[in-house]
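Job type: complex structure
Entries:
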Amino acid sequence: MDPDAPLGVFDSGLGGLTVVRALRERCPAENIVYLGDTARVPYGTRSAETVVRYAIGCARVLVNRGVKAIVVACNTVSAVALDMLRVELDRPVLGVIVPGARAAVAAAEGGAVGVLGTTGTITSGAYPRAVASLSTRTEVFGQPAPLLVSLAEEGWLEGEVPRLVSQRYLEPLVRAGVRCVVLGCTHFPLLQRVIEAEAASLAGAPIPIVDSASATADDVAAFLTERGQRTTRSGRGKLELFVTDLPKSFSTVAERFLGEPLGDVHQIDL
Amino acid sequence: MDPDAPLGVFDSGLGGLTVVRALRERCPAENIVYLGDTARVPYGTRSAETVVRYAIGCARVLVNRGVKAIVVACNTVSAVALDMLRVELDRPVLGVIVPGARAAVAAAEGGAVGVLGTTGTITSGAYPRAVASLSTRTEVFGQPAPLLVSLAEEGWLEGEVPRLVSQRYLEPLVRAGVRCVVLGCTHFPLLQRVIEAEAASLAGAPIPIVDSASATADDVAAFLTERGQRTTRSGRGKLELFVTDLPKSFSTVAERFLGEPLGDVHQIDL
């Protein structure tokens, strides 16, 4: 592939823009094409068959735009559809779960790992599987945390409500003695500060919080370097956004996740 | 139509089961066919064109099952697609917004009306329009309240978090001096008690809370009686459920909204 081809990133909605944000910090010169399947978000509550079908549809759009690799910026898709995507596409496919699991095993230093995610991600068992493939002795405790998704979308990022919600979700993890907590949903980096504070307050000592978006960006950068696929351009790469529906509060929510003003936004049908 | 034909009810997901629950209290002998478009929930964040297309698809499934009338148990669809459904279908179509608005105007006794709903319902302006058609002098204040949807789905129906979230959403309505609050989303009846308590505490006196699910059931009963379309059977009617995807926590969430054990559940494609 041409190393100057863009990276393709997709997610069920806009949460994957936190991965784009991390990628643009880590590999600023890369051009990125992002597809958010906003017409069918959220995937987290769908059956595995449906998620696989939707994911293949999204990935094909990116392949048709000539991307050099595909980053699945969605925990649900990474949990259930990664193998199928690798079979169906002739492009490298990178997910968010293995990088998050790897960073978590390192941060937990032999202790147990806690995971906050959507109900779909947690019940899929994808994090325990990924951790087991890295370290057979590490215990993993999962906690579905759907209200954190809504808080991130609403922009309620500090104050009493996010504090109490985080507390309620973290409590069983801290009681289980986890030594690190993975943010296993692309929405959660927005709430990292409050989650960190609550975890420390419940445990009586700081607990490292692993952001799978940053871990994924590190992985993508390493992958491109190893393959000699980093762009030869310098300067700031372009970002093109595609969505399948334009939700009413699109710009506000998208900019909150992306952390910069939006560039071009195109609506497409799938 | 045969008065013993079933009533058709549809919603973007499972929230419309609160309308089914109210219908089964108000017209217990009626057979009901319910369709929840769980593969494409939520509609509240989609564009109006998409909502209309999805709604027509759902309504046709019910027409093909021989229903005598269609109840749109979804505020978003009632807000943007009711006229189009009436044009496209040869069945009576009843929504949730006009009944809710009528009950609110009565309860507010000339004062202002507050509405809690999804972002889609509030920005559509459907409640102000419906209220204006009933009473030109009644002011309407809308408040998008997306976190209440997640709380209802999670089953967090009492305690500090629902209290604080309700408080935050109710505060601008109470400050505007509303004399009644409409629950303009089918998920919210589950949180009625905490919303009622917070409204009273903020206002320093009770504020009537209008549940649009109950108001709609009253409307449907009156409509069937006027048209001589009430079922001739007695006893408890049958309830058949159709969904477009079987979400992981389907039974728990569905029973929470329905308030009784589930009957037959069938999955269909749309």
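Summary: DSSP finds twelve helices and ten strands in chain B. Residues 14 and 236 of chain B are 22 Å apart (CA to CA).
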